[in-house]
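Data deposition worksheet. Section B asks for the primary sequence of the deposited chain exactly as it was used as input, without tags or linkers unless they were present during the calculation. Section C holds the resulting structure in token form. Section D is free text for depositor observations; keep each observation to a single sentence. Incomplete worksheets are returned to the depositor.
Section A, Depositor: J.P.
Section B:
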Amino acid sequence: MDTVPAAVKAILPYICLSDKKDMEEKTSKDVWGPIWRLEFLAQCYRHPAIGETLRKAIVKRVEQTLEELRKLVRQDGGWAYYEFVQSGITFVTATALVAMIDAKEAGLPADDEMIRRAADSVAHARQSPGLYGYHYAGAEDEIGCAGRSSLCEYALIRAGKGDKEALAKSVENFFKHRHLLEAIKDQEGTHIGQGMTAPYYYLFGHYWTSRAIHLLPKEKQAEYFKKMREILCRNMKPNGEFTDTPLTKDNEVYGTAFGALWAYQIALDEWRMKSDEKPKDEAESTPDK
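Section C:
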């Protein structure tokens, strides 16, 4: 794709050109802000149509974002979205870990020590192959772990510390127990149902499991992506929206954005299968986005 999508063209200068004071005042306590900003900037930096001026602005903003993450990191090397929680939360830390690795692989500034410590924080919460606790390896069963474990295994593989057999187990568990996410989707509240989980795990879990599937053997990819396509189609509303939790004011916008990311992972799989290429990490060059 030789042009920058209009929506990206409109928002990227705003994201890049916010000064440091503005960043600290508005986002210093919101760990999801810097995590997803970093992921977004990493993908934009790879785009061949991004001009040199914006590329320099992206580098500066990434440096600021890494500094923001340093200020928010917990003693165990992870991150949490509640200020009063003093240890890393696995699905937050794993998302940050992937974002940092995507940025590094794109050629952007990186903090190798922060990456190493984040990977250790995630690994510390491994209960058994393919199963991760919320904070640490505790007594949670595979039902409660199903929405986060594929992400955790995927993040560790990306950090050079993972196990593809464990990844396969985590994906198997996700499909085995995803009906429990289906049962609580769009409901009020959190930590509900048999798995004591929340509706906002629905799109999050499907998106990250789709990314994880790309690292499985090709024959397993085909099987799982066929299931994902069917689930995706059932969940898209007639107007193209996706939703999973009524807890946010912008549920439709947030949900549809996650749905689009999820759909892209499936489209990426189809492109690879048609081109008959050996699967690579999805952070590498890909078809039009």
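Section D:
Residues 1-124 form a domain with the Glutathione S-transferase Yfyf (Class Pi); Chain A, domain 2 fold (CATH 1.20.1050).
The chain has two domains: 1-124, 163-289.
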